[in-house]
Specification:
mainly alpha; 7 helices; about 0% strand; transport; heme binding
Length: about 140
């Protein structure tokens, strides 16, 4: 008998950032999302900046970090505090549904496997419902 502990048989934890396609996939996802937001009468007024670029970068960096990529978002902006950061905006069912509409299109563009699509979509849908802070 060996004095060595048995080798671990555990599989490595998957890095969902890489499984979802890495930075390129998140760039495509967020670019597609904001292409829809740019012309949406419900969503566009929620972005006071003339250029959607800064919002695009914030969302992209947040999602990259959340899914296991570099933690640039936290380095640049601190803790995400999503509810607090969205508190100044009135987010009701109409806004949530518009957000989900554009995000669904963006996720579809990625052409993920059914399992990865479901995993990503479930998170995005929960996040959208979590952000609702008003009744219309």
């Amino acid at each position: 008998m060996s004095d060595q502990p048995p080798a671990s048989t555990a599989l490595p934890t998957p890095n969902y950032f890489e499984l979802l396609g890495g930075e390129d996939a998140f760039r495509l996802l967020v670019d597609e999302f904001y292409a829809g937001v740019a012309t949406d009468p419900v969503m566009r007024p929620m972005y006071p900046e003339e250029d959607l670029g800064p919002a695009n970068e914030r969302l992209r960096l947040f999602l990259i970090q959340y899914w296991g990529g570099p933690n640039t978002y936290s380095q640049e902006r601190g803790h995400p505090r999503l509810r607090m950061r969205h508190a100044p905006f009135v987010i009701g069912e109409k806004e949530r549904d518009a957000w989900l509409h554009h995000m669904r299109h963006a996720v579809d563009v990625l052409e993920l496997s059914p399992e990865l699509d479901k995993m990503l979509w479930d998170y995005l849908e929960r996040a959208a419902f979590f952000m609702v802070n008003a009744e219309h």
